[in-house]
Amino acid sequence: MRVGLVCAHAGPSRTTDGPTVGTHQHIARVAAELARRGHDVRVYERRDDPGLPATVDADGYRVERVPVGPAAPLPTAELIPYVAEFGGWLTDRWTGQWRPEVVHGHYWVGGLAAAHAVRETDIPVVQTFHSLGIEQLRHLGRAYDGPGERIPLERALTRAVDIAVAQCNDEVDELTRMGLQRTSVAMVPTGVDVEQFHPDGEAAPRDQRPRILSVGGLAPGHGQDDLIQAMRLVGDAELVIAGGPPAEELDSHAEARRLRELADRNGVAEQVKLVGAVPHDQMATWYRSADVVACTPHYSSAGRVSLEAMACGVPVVGYAMGGIADAVVDEVTGRLVPPGDVRALGVTLRRLLADNAGRFAYGHAAVDRVRCSYTWERTAGALERLYERVVRRRKPVEA
């Protein structure tokens, strides 16, 4: 099958939007897995540097860089005027020898470009939003900084696609509230590279204190505030926060300074350590160094951090929402607490850190859960079946 994966952002090494880095990692793994299954896969992303080649082959699939907009990195809000041009370029491209049998849009801007490209054809469109503006606005409140056009455009996009792919049950419910029929929503969770994330291997250095690890960007809504306040109830343990800018830039980073001031006001400054950005290929060593991984974002559709931690055999304490609630089985692979309940978060962390046998059991169950239900092979297999279904639905029945 010929599959076109559309993401209107530039490549992951140059994007200016943090969330789209995870989106590109997701697309790359899906493309590679589909190629291994014998499909002809092409990924379309915006070309933001004239020095980059127009096409490149990687892991069995082809990446094509679309020359629309200025040849420079752009934030999402500034991509919107170029969506129609991006879609028109795809339309022209697909009138040649290579024409996709199914198109899969990623993130809302990529989905709009994909839907524009096939609007006068019989090519079906599958859409993965990766996050929804209406959900982010609800959970983040004033911390939500998405462009104003996003929410109405996402709602319009749901009416232009054949099927939407949700990454968690909360997202399924949200998409149906946006007007999609339940039969037009498929739940396909993200995958984990179990060859990279596993219990055996090196661990990052640490001291003798129990370690709680938090992974995520340094921005309001990522939940580090709650964890810092919860440390007052945890006792003698360290909280390591990985993410944000490189370590050498933390002193000048506004959110990093705010979090350090918060830790100081709560009397836990000596227990909180910010390490800055960690390359994704080094994250497994940090997960393995932790006794518990805390996942407390105010919004998370995929729950990627919780899954990577579980794959490394580390129990997770997380907020019972989004992808975290789907990934973590309460009292089996970790503990779930009500979102925003700082007291419950602190008490749960303290009790789990004191329960060596419980953490050992949770860690073993976590590894089994990821390997059974959250591998990239499983994710690609589910998408493959979904593509086959929408292609059959679009093809006319022969007499």
From TrEMBL:
Indicate the secretion signal residues. none
Q: What are the protein's GO molecular function terms?
A: glycosyltransferase activity
Q: Where are the transmembrane segments?
A: none
Protein name as catalogued: Glycosyltransferase
Origin organism is: Micromonospora globbae
Its EC number(s) = 2.4.-.-
Q: What is a single Pfam family found in this protein's UniProt entry?
A: Glycos_transf_1
Q: Does the keyword Translocase apply?
A: no
Q: Which UniProt keywords apply?
A: Glycosyltransferase, Transferase
Which top EC class applies here?
A: transferase
Q: Which Gene3D superfamilies match?
A: Glycogen Phosphorylase B (3.40.50.2000)
Q: Which PANTHER family match?
A: SULFOQUINOVOSYL TRANSFERASE SQD2
Enumerate the InterPro entries for this protein. Glyco_trans_1, Glyco_trans_4-like_N, Glycosyltransferase_grp1
Specify the Glycosyltransferase subfamily 4-like N-terminal domain's residue ranges: 22-191
Q: Which residues form the Glycosyl transferase family domain?
A: 205-357
Q: Does the keyword S-adenosyl-L-methionine apply?
A: no
